[in-house]
Amino acid sequence: MTKTWISESEDQTAIIAKEIAEGLNYPAVICLNGDLGVGKTALSRALIRYLLNDPTMVVPSPTYTLVQTYDDDTIWHFDLYRLDTPDQLYDVGWEEALSAKLCLIEWPDKAGALLPKNRIDITINTEKNGERSIKMTK
User: How many domains does the chain have?
Assistant: First the structure.
């Protein structure tokens, strides 16, 4: 199944995140693909805030820590941009994360063969007019 949305703002991205969250079967692994600055973290932040019913919750990017966890480790948020080798994932709880309620992975290509086959891929692209296209493939 493939679905595509167009977002003109971070608020619209949050509405899309709610729709995505409501359609998930848990546990779920979501891989977020796209260029630097395209909105992967904004979509992840919106998903986490919606699932935890806290629209003002501070949800930092895990760029420097590689991973942030929420709600007693039921939600894991990875940013693999700075990862040198896939094996480093074992040092930050990778196996536990994959069995959590939700695992969000930015820059999933850095995980290589460690990515699970049963996952949802989301690709975000910037369109010529500045809008974001968000394509989900299950």
Answer: 1
Question: Which CATH number do you get for residue 30?
Answer: 3.40.50.300
Q: Which of 75, 30, 87 is nearest to 67 (CA)?
A: 75
Q: What is the pLDDT of residues 38-75, one digit of tens each?
A: 999 999 999 999 999 999 999 999 988 999 999 999 99
Instruction: In whole angstroms, give the CA distance from residue 74 to residue 81.
Output: 22
Measured at the CA of 102, the angle between CA 61 and CA 120, to 5 degrees, comes to 95
Per the confidence metrics, is the pTM higher than 0.90?
yes
Q: Report the distance separating Cα 54 and Cα 47, nearest Å.
A: 10
Domain that holds residue 124: 18-137
